[in-house]
Design goal:
about 190 residues; alpha/beta; about 20% strand; Rossmann fold
C-alpha cells in the first residue's frame, strides 16, 4: 500500500477530500499531513481522522536532514501539495522524482508562478475577462508551477461570475478530480 503525505497550509478542503477518498482504499492511504502553520485547520482535521501530523518552519523545511528524515521515517511514497505555498527544496524533488504533485487553481501556464495562489488567481482570471478557467495537476520541479502537467479540467467563466463564484467552480473541479488523478498516479507507479 502506497503512503501519501499531504502538505497544506490552510483549511484543507482538498486534503479532507483526499482523506475521504483513500479512507477505504486498498492501494494507498494518507499517512501524514504536514503544514508550515502550527494552527492550520487542516491539522485538526488530520487529528480527527487519526492521521499523523508534522509541522515545520522554513529552516526545517529546507534542511536536508530534518524534513527528508521525517518523510523517510514514515515511509512516504508520494507527496501531494494541496494549498501549500512554499517552493519545494531541491533535496525533496531529487528524493521523490515524479512523486510530488501540486494542485493549481488555474489552467497553467496561465496564472501561475510565485504569488499566484487562491483568490489572487481568481481575481486575475476575472480581471482578464477569461471565458474559461480550470485546474492543473502537475509534477513539482524547482520552479513554481512549471513542472510537467499531468491533468487539466476546465470550466466556463460567465461575465457575471465574481472571483468568489470562480473559486467555487474551481473547488468543485478540485474535489472531483484530485482524488481520482492521485489514485491513478500511485497505482501506475507500483
Amino acid at each position: 500500500m502506497k503512503r501519501i503525505a499531504i502538505f497544506a497550509s490552510g483549511r484543507g478542503s482538498n486534503a479532507r477530500r483526499l482523506v475521504e477518498h483513500f479512507s477505504e482504499s486498498e492501494v494507498a492511504k494518507i499517512a501524514l499531513i504536514a503544514s508550515n502553520k502550527e494552527n492550520a485547520p487542516v491539522l485538526e482535521m488530520a487529528l480527527k481522522n487519526n492521521i499523523p501530523t508534522l509541522t515545520f518552519d522554513k529552516k526545517k523545511f529546507n534542511s536536508k536532514e530534518s524534513i527528508l528524515f521525517q518523510l523517510e521515517l514514515m515511509k512516504i511514497d508520494f507527496i501531494v501539495l494541496a494549498g501549500f505555498l512554499w517552493l519545494v527544496p531541491k533535496v525533496l524533488i531529487e528524493h521523490f522524482p515524479k512523486k510530488i504533485i501540486n494542485l493549481h487553481p488555474a489552467l497553467l501556464p496561465k496564472y501561475g508562478g510565485k504569488g499566484m495562489y487562491g483568490m489572487r488567481v481568481h481575481e486575475a482570471v476575472r480581471a482578464a475577462n477569461e471565458s474559461e478557467t480550470g485546474i492543473t495537476i502537475h509534477y513539482v520541479n524547482e520552479h513554481y508551477d512549471e513542472g510537467d502537467i499531468i491533468f487539466q479540467a476546465k470550466c466556463p467563466v460567465e461575465e457575471t461570475n465574481s472571483p468568489q463564484d470562480i473559486a467555487q467552480k474551481i473547488h468543485e473541479l478540485e474535489h472531483l478530480h484530485l482524488p481520482i488523478i492521485i489514485e491513478k498516479l500511485v497505482t501506475s507507479n507500483e
